Fold this protein.
Amino acid sequence: MSSKAITTRKEDYSQWYLDVVEAADLAENSSVRGCMVIKPYGYALWENMQKILDAKFKVTGVANAYFPIFIPKSFFEREAQHVEGFAKECAVVTHHRLEMDEATGKLIPAGPLDEPLIVRPTSETIIYDTFSRWVQSYRDLPLLINQWANIVRWEMRTRLFLRSMEFLWQEGHTAHATEKEANERARQMIEVYKDFFENYLAIPIIAGQKTESEKFAGADCTYCVEAMMQDGKALQAGTSHMLGQNFAKPFNVSFLDEKGENQFVWQTSWGVSTRMIGGLIMAHGDDKGMIMPPRIAPLQVVVATIFTNEKEKEIVSVVANDLVLKLKEQGLSVKLDDRDERPGVKFYEWEKKGVPLRIEIGPKDVQNKKAVLVRRDTSEKQIVDISKVSATTIDLLEEIQKSLFERALLYQKNKTKEINDFKKFEKFIAEEEGFVIANWCGDEKCEAEIKEKTKATIRCIPFEGSEADGDCLCGKKGKYKVIFAKAY
Amino acid sequence: MSSKAITTRKEDYSQWYLDVVEAADLAENSSVRGCMVIKPYGYALWENMQKILDAKFKVTGVANAYFPIFIPKSFFEREAQHVEGFAKECAVVTHHRLEMDEATGKLIPAGPLDEPLIVRPTSETIIYDTFSRWVQSYRDLPLLINQWANIVRWEMRTRLFLRSMEFLWQEGHTAHATEKEANERARQMIEVYKDFFENYLAIPIIAGQKTESEKFAGADCTYCVEAMMQDGKALQAGTSHMLGQNFAKPFNVSFLDEKGENQFVWQTSWGVSTRMIGGLIMAHGDDKGMIMPPRIAPLQVVVATIFTNEKEKEIVSVVANDLVLKLKEQGLSVKLDDRDERPGVKFYEWEKKGVPLRIEIGPKDVQNKKAVLVRRDTSEKQIVDISKVSATTIDLLEEIQKSLFERALLYQKNKTKEINDFKKFEKFIAEEEGFVIANWCGDEKCEAEIKEKTKATIRCIPFEGSEADGDCLCGKKGKYKVIFAKAY
């Protein structure tokens, strides 16, 4: 447990982020460059995310399966854009054992492989090779599969959760008889993600479509959910790709339709990852540390006892234990902190970890049949009759969940400006924080030029409100209204 | 779905096994040599195993975390036996990108790494490197961590679930202040596994200790759970290792004890894997396919409707739907099969998949307010009043669970012989099936000689009844009574 002070957001936002990851005990860098260790508290958060998402996927008819971690090099090469997108940063397995080198006395790679294997940076190719065997007839469609897996991308500049060489994710892969149905599925999963982000992570989402230059390597088009972090930058929180027949053709995923004719399937893939944890920190955290939205929190309530001697400890423990039991019966995730530590030390630890609600019980409280409830998000205190703690806790957790979302939404709205003049745009991006709504001509060159000059990218063409109503920043006729921002 | 006939066990047990994996739609070989694809039905079984085990681990105080997939070569080299055990079969990552070779126009590995990385064949080294940072004081102990992960071992002869290049598993890793406590934890986890195998998978277990020559590479000693398959061979179903201080020393996992003195920790590691699915098939399956014990079955009940025309279909569907709902309310996992297929086709499919109980409803049944319940394990049929189906189903599932275990236990007892004469031993192993209980002198050379001559190995020195009561097969004085068998 670190007891180092957390850098403030104002002072250095990047350092604040890393300090919170450490202070909340979520993850750390490992001895393998760019690979992280997800610590128990961070992993418990990931397990909650998995549980909720997994249930949501299953409701839409998706089943889980598992596919090989290795992808033959030749599979990658079959889809030109795909290999282009991933060849520059992938872990390549070239040997299958270690052997003693007699000259140096050291172990060296031996048993060279005929064909190198790539550690999956995404699994379209290996999964669709499998789909080509699973899909024969229109009766086998739609095929709706998801995989929870680890992924490796050889990132040069890494950052815990946000960009790491290895990360955990889910990747959904579906195959459909028609283009329309595939496109609907790709859009449906964006709705699932949006619902999850807004209603569980309390992070407001802008959903839309990526531009051609920002889409997934191998997709016809990429849909995305984008979120604003507290420094005004965008986080691409999840993507869903309409793959068209780009993989179906090289991997021969085809079926006999009702007329007995052979057709290629239409496909989608979609994913979210441990990156969401980074987003959660940056959307809600404050200078005291992490703030967990109650619906996703590994620990929703901590009951901290206050005492100055053994006798007091005994008295408050009875009441505290009883309360913990009652709260657990309500289905809440609760921890009792009755350690022999100063109250301040105990409070600070759970604040750093972002536990939504702290309940304090001291000898006086026991005497008065009261307890003190402290909200993590606002630091507000309430003194509550011990008999009403359980009901009040449930209300407060709902209230915190709602209030975190509203706060983030207000923040996003306040930090989003409509600007259609390039000078003003440039100045805003350079000097202020937030998203810019602007008309865009639809030209990739214009997009690239703006990116080069300002480092801002088009985050998406939003599903809602993307009709142009004026000229592009470059002066040409606007085609869409889009969201520009600097991004993680 | 395969409609190919399943080879009988008598005909060819190995082929029967592969046929059942295919017929039950559990897994298949992928295009990557030795790597399997776990299909949705097989993965749902794995998810059930995970859920139950995970809860059992957590009850004992274990928390989940996640560690890097890559292990630096130098980490392996720090524990001599460990590297010896794994160097011969590991995937070695040597490059971090693919680059176009201008001469051939092909992508070739580029960006050579300074130090090769090994794809984890087990994670002791990378985890204990992390533990060395997590453990400082006796207050940090015991440290009880588990990881659910994928593992790669470059096996030359692979077999779905039983031996594959990549498999899924859990690996628990703990650190303790004392040798005694570590040893107790290693033994405790064997009890957890035994409980899981016997009470959920319905597979009787012989728990014991491995001999020196069969223990884990780097352990002081290895405890194991061994199970008998229907061909009389043993399956090592799970292991728990007392690692002593063998890793603590090279990885410097040490702590200040209560006296302020620096001490190395004592460690354990323990794991079970997707291999359990192979064990489940071979313990219970029959010539019709898989048999799932109800407590682990992805589908516990299938309700299959019988009809010859649309009107009948409509009538039976109403009753069937109602029944499915009632069974689901009981917390059961139920599927309605109302496809327009012949009853035989429907029944056969769920038989192959081993669904413990089938409920048939046809127009006559509806008229008589009855349903037909058919046990997968015994094929016994019962005609039951529709109002009593729900209660009877619950009883029958319990009965099937119990009966599968008892059948397997009886089988194991009948196929276990006590033999203390080498000629008889050799003949038994060559011509019959099963386990042999025999006195053993404790000498590794004797053990190796028996293995060479008969292919039988010492599966374990059982926790119960291992006191020698006569001479070893080699004629020397017996030290232990052990279990010999051929093994997977």
The mean pLDDT of chain B is 96.
